[in-house]
Amino acid sequence: MFIRKINRESERKSTGIAELDVLLGGGIRNGHILLLIQQENVRYHIGIHRIFISNGLQENDKVIHLSMDNPILSIPSADAAPSKSTACSPKERIAWRYSTVSKISNTSAITSHTLYNMRVQHPKHNEVTNIQEIKDLQINDKNTRLSISSFMSPLWDMTEDDANNFFLSLRQKVRSTNSVCIISVPVYLLQDIMYGYFDYIVELSEPVEGLKYDGVLQCIKTETHDRHKYGVVCSSTGIRIEKIVLPPEA
Questions:
Q1: In this predicted model, what pLDDT tens digit does every residue of 108-150 receive, in sequence order?
Q2: pTM attached to this predicted model
Q3: Rounded to an integer, what distance in angstroms lies between the CA atom of residue 114 and that of residue 98?
Q4: Residue 37 in contact with residue 202, Cβ under 8 Å?
Q5: Which of 47, 108, 126, 137 is the most exposed place for a label (fewest CB within 10 A)?
Q6: Cα–Cα distances in Å, from 235 out to 3, 44, 214, 232?
Q7: Neighbours of 99 (CB within 10 A)
Q8: 3-state secondary structure of 75
Q9: What is the pLDDT of residues 67-85, one digit of tens each?
Q10: Is residue 149 within 8 Å of 116, Cβ to Cβ?
Q11: Beta-carbon neighbour count of residue 191 at 10 Å?
């Protein structure tokens, strides 16, 4: 098992998922926003938010969660897992490519250095600031970690102009406070939204029939420019991301 560390000198924060950090280029840069595009029927984005928040609590960050659909999340406890000297680095695992493919079930697995107990609340879960109204969002502390889930769903009752104005304001707040943000938005609500508001864009899709995954992840905009598709595995110890080979029709 490898250990993936985020270099604080590079001013990045971990998502809490080592494989996702690698795909982003080493985590989320301070002052940057990661957009998770939820394809139809995708629900595992909530797990990404939960782990992102848990990692923030572990790092003693100021953590804010904004949502009308999921206003209070169960934040998993986190424990560092023992490392093995024989393990490959995450970059080596991500960069691995198939030379011969015989079955679509072949994968390149990458294992995170942190194990989460998704069934047990983090001991500091009460330190998360949970809000439901945009008007209540205030980012006053430097290096705040902001989670916004299922933004613009029907519960938000927002117009496209409202959303674009919010994204512009959000970008300014995140930049000025050197904070980081993960925001998830249902895909059907993004048609007239300017993607330039976001520094990273990752698409989350439903699982492919015949493959034992909870979903498929593809980076649209990251520093690594990796456009391969990855399998997402959700378990009681967190989220794992694996390189997969999809059937031609997928």
A1: 443 446 789 999 999 999 999 999 999 999 999 998 999 999 9
A2: 0.84
A3: 27
A4: yes
A5: 126
A6: 19, 11, 9, 10
A7: 5
A8: coil
A9: 999 999 999 999 865 444 3
A10: no
A11: 7
Q: HSE-up of 39 (CA within 13 Å, CB side)?
A: 12
Q: What are the backbone angles phi and psi of residue 233, rounded to the nearest 5°?
A: -115, 120
Q: Which pair of tokens denotes residue 147?
A: 């989670």
With CA atoms as reference, report the closest residue to 185 among 62, 74, 49: 49
3-state secondary structure of 114: strand
Q: Beta-carbon neighbour count of residue 220 at 10 Å?
A: 13
Out of 3.30.470.10, 3.30.43.10, 3.40.50.300, 3.40.640.10, select the CATH number for domain 8-82+102-244.
3.40.50.300
Give start and end residues of each alpha helix (H) in the chain. 18-24, 45-58, 90-95, 160-177
Instruction: Map out the domains of the chain as residue ranges.
Output: 8-82+102-244
Helix (H) or strand (E) holding 152: none
Q: 3-state class of 30 per DSSP?
A: coil
User: Which tokens hold the place of 225?
Assistant: 């420019």
- Structure-token pair, residue 105: 């079930």
* Single-letter residue type at 59: E
Token pair listed for 234: 């959700």
Helix (H) or strand (E) holding 231: strand 229-235
Tokens representing 84 are 């093995």
- How many C-beta atoms surround the C-beta of residue 189 within 10 A? 19
Tokens 């969002």, residue? 137
